[in-house]
Fold these 2 entries.
Entry 1:
Amino acid sequence: MKTVTLIPGDGIGPEITQAVVEILNAAGAEIEWDTQSAGADVIEKEGTPLPKRVIESIKRNKVALKAPVTTPIGQGFRSVNVQLRKSLDLYANLRPSKNIEGIKTRFDNVDLVIVRENTEDLYAGIERQIDEDTAESIKIITRKASLRIAEFAFNYAVKNNRKTVHAVSKANICKLTDGLFLNCTKKTAEKYPQIEYKEILVDNLCMQLVQNPEKFDVLVLPNLYGDIVSDLCAGLTGGLGIAQGANIGDNIAVFEPVHGSAPDIKGQNKANPTALLLSAIEMLKYLGQSDTAKRIETALFKTIKEGKALTNDLSGNATTKEYTDTIISNL
Ligand code: NAI
C-alpha cells in the first residue's frame, strides 16, 4: 500500500477527484489517500490557498495526485500551482498529447510530448507597477534550469523511444533569455547523437502544429510557451477534458491534468474526469502498479471507443457520474 497526497482542489476539482478515486478503488489500486484541501475554499479558514500542511504532506509522501485550483486573475494570491511547483522544485512539466480512438478530431496522427520548464521565465512572478500607466514583468531564464530541462527532455526521448527533440523559443526577439535557453538545449543535444535535434520559433510552431502535428515528437519549451502550446495540443486531440500532465522533480512527482478549475461548469455533474484519470494512470505506472494502470486504461479507452456514455465536451450527453460508472463496469 502506498500513501499518496490527494488534492481535490476547487471548481470542478472535487467532482473529478471523486470520480477518479472511485475508479482507482474499483480497480484495486493499492493506494491510501492523504487528502489535503487547498485553493479558494480554504483561504477564509487558513488565510492562504496553499497551507504548509499541503507541501509537508507531498514532501512526506513524495507523490501526489492534484486536481485544479483556481487562481484569481489580475489580483489576490499568487497561483497555488506556481507556488507548489516552485517550492517542491518540480522542474519538469510533462504533457503528452495523443489521439484517443473514438474521439473525433481533425487529426488522427498526433503523438507528441511537451516538456515544459516549470520554475522560472515570466512565472517567477517578479512584477512591479512603475507608475499608474506602466507595469513590468521580468523574464528569468537561467543556465541551470535550462540545462536541467533539456537533459530531462533528451533523457525522456531516449527512454521512450522518441526520435526528435524540438527546442522551442522566440530567440529572434528575446535574444539573451531565449538565446540562453537555446544554447543549453543545443549543448545538451550533443550528448545525445541518437536523437535528432531541431530548433523552431514558437509562432511558427503554432502554425505548423495546427497543420501538420505529426511532424512533432518531443518539444522542450520555457515555461510560458509550454503553458500556451500545451493547451493548443490539448485542442488537437479532443480538448482539455482529456489532457493529462505531471510535474516532476528529482524525487517528487505531482500528477495533474492540464486544465483548470472550469468554474463555468462547476457543480453541474458535467465535467470530464478523463484528464485527471489519465494523470492517475501515469501515477500508478510511476508507482510500479502497471497492471492496475493497464486495466484502467483499457476500460477507459473501451468506454470512449464505444461512445455510449461520453461527457458534453466529447459531444456526448452523459453526466460525470454516468461516465464514471461506465468505466467501472468496463473494468
Ligand atoms: P479551464 O481549463 O478551467 O477551462 C477552459 C474551458 O475548458 C472551459 O470552458 C471549461 O469548462 C473547459 N474544461 C476544462 N476542463 C474541463 C473538463 N475536465 N471537462 C469538461 N470541460 C472542461 O481554464 P480557465 O477557465 O482559463 O481557468 C479557470 C481557473 O483555473 C483559473 O483560475 C486558472 O488560473 C485555473 N487553472 C488552474 C490550473 C491548475 O490547477 N493546474 C491550470 C489552468 C488553470
Note: Residues 12, 68-71, 81, 240-241, 256, 259-265, 271-272, 275, 313 surround NAI (CB under 6 Å).
Entry 2:
Amino acid sequence: MQQPNGSRIIVALDFPEAAAAFDLIGRIAPDQCRLKIGKEMFTRLGPDFVREVVARGFDVFLDLKFHDIPNTVAASCAAAAELGVWMINVHASGGRRMMEAARERLEVAGARPMLVAVTILTSLSGEDIAEVGFQGTPEENVLRLARVAQEAGLDGVVCSPRETGALRARLGTDFRLVTPGVRPANSADDDQRRVMTPGDAIRAGANYLVIGRPITAAANPTEALRRIAAEVSQASA
Ligand code: C5P
C-alpha cells in the first residue's frame, strides 16, 4: 500500500548490494523521504527488493526509464504499478503514442503511480544530441519533449535543476518537475556538473529533488537528510 507522505526529497538508493540499502533504510522513516530504486539495484535484486521497500512503508520511485513500442511500455508500466510503487518513468522520445498507451493502461488499473517522462538525459551535450539526429539545443529539445509529455497526459518530467525555471513558466503549476543534480552548498559535486542547492531548486519550481550521495555516502546519513529537509522546508515556506 502506498504511504502518503509530504516529503519532497527522493533519496537515490544507488548501492551495489541490498545490505547497504537496508542499512540506510533502517535508519530513516517513511515520513522523512521517498526512495528511488534504479536500474542497477532492480537488475541485481529484482521486484522482491522493490516489494520489500514498499512493505516497509516507503513511497518508491521505480526509475527504469521504459522506452519501447507502446504495447510493451504500457504492459511494463502495469507490471511496475502492481509492485505498489509511487512513481515510474518512461523516455519522452518514445513518442506521444507510447506515453498515451502507458498512461491509459495505468488508468485502467485504478489507483496508479505517478507517471513522469525523461526528456533529454542531462549527460548529453549539444554535440551528442546532434550526432543522433536531434536539431536545436538540448534546452529546446527538453521543452519540446516536455510539452509532448504534458499533452500525452503524463504527470511531469525529470529535468535538470537548471531547466526547472523555464519549464515551470511554460508548463504551468500542476506539472510535476523532478530534479536530480542537487547538492547542498558544502558538499562535493561528485560526477554531477550543473548542480543547484536544494533550496534554489525548490525556489526555481522543482516539486521533488532526487538526491543520492550527499545522503547515502554521508558519515551520518540521517543528519544529512535532516539538514536537507530543513533547507527544503525553509525554501517551500
Ligand atoms: O548521487 P547523486 O545525487 O548524484 O544521485 C542522483 C541520482 O539521480 C542517481 O540515481 C542518478 O542516476 C539519477 N539521475 C541523475 N541525472 C539525471 C537522471 C537521473 O543524476 N539526469
Note: The two ends are 29 Å apart (CA to CA).
